[in-house]
Amino acid sequence: MKVLVLGSKGQLGKCLLDQLIKTSYEVIYLSRSDFDIGDLKSLSENMLLLKPAIVINASAYTAVDNAENDHKSVNLINHLAVAELANICKILNAWLIHISTDYVFDGLASHPYAPDDLVNPINEYGRSKLAGELAIKQYCKSYFIVRTSSVFSEHGANFLKTILSLLQSKEQINVISNQYITPTYAKDLAEALVKIAIKISAESIPSNIYHYAGNETCSWYDFAKCIMQAASKDSNLFNVKLLPISYLDYPQVAQRPNYSS
Q: At 223, is the secondary structure helix, strand, or coil?
């Protein structure tokens, strides 16, 4: 079976490479340097040429603040390109496993969101990701939409690596303490996606939306504190002061959900 991974140079894409190498699948990895997913003609041509049985779309426009002033680019990558993927997967009778986000919710809940909870994104990034989800449901008959949250890993740019860098360069780090998330290790997510791919190839299962995230809700401040405590076991970093602040005191262009567990 042929599996196509889009976004192979991102943190999830690299973790997928580590997991899929253990399978017997013929796997093709494509990154932004191989071709621009925003070039819809090229996307269609490549897909029709490669004829994958399963497409894992780990590519996305994820610059949440930049998206507020770059509507065209974020809509192209997170919506229009995803709609094209869905169309081609339908033509090829292929499965589409698509990664979405907790930012499709408004953050007004008081308990962890379930896949069938009401969506109501409050920023451009979230709206573009929701539009991508709706396009998949409209155009593709065989899909898994997997929403995740606050992905981190040893690869790429993410909150974990940012905090580790700041611990070595700052005396004080201000971190938001009243926005709640569910940090998710990219390797765990990759393992789950490979299990989905194996299940798809082994039996007939219905298309659906799923949530996959870490098992603990915490604030960004709590997450940073855990990172600092773990790092301090191997380094002398206890002199760094971690200061909890409100999201109201932290400059952000885009509004974030206050609770997106």
A: helix
Which neighbouring-strand residues pair with 30? 6
Look at residue 142 and give its three-state secondary structure: coil
**234 pLDDT band (50/70/90 cuts)?**
low
* H or E element in which residue 86 lies: helix 81-92
Q: In sequence order, what are the residues at sequence separation of 6 or more whose Cβ sits closer than 8 angstroms to the Cβ of residue 94?
A: 51, 52, 53, 54, 55, 88, 142
259 beta partners = 180
**Token pair for 35:** 């071709």
User: 95: which DSSP letter?
Assistant: E
Q: pLDDT tens digits, residue range 34-93?
A: 878 899 998 999 899 999 999 999 999 999 999 999 999 999 999 999 999 999 999 999
Copy the structure tokens of residue 24: 């017997």
Instruction: Give bridge partners of residue 100 from the DSSP assignment.
Output: 147
CA distances from 140 to 90, 96, 134 (A): 5, 8, 10
Cβ neighbors of 240 (< 8 A, separation 6 or more) are: 166, 167, 170, 171, 172, 173, 228
Cβ atoms within 10 A of the Cβ of 245, count?
14
- Coil, strand or helix at 30: strand
Cβ 53 vs Cβ 95: under 8 Å: yes
In this structure, the strands spanning 151-152 and 54-57 are unpaired
Active-site residues, by number, are: 125
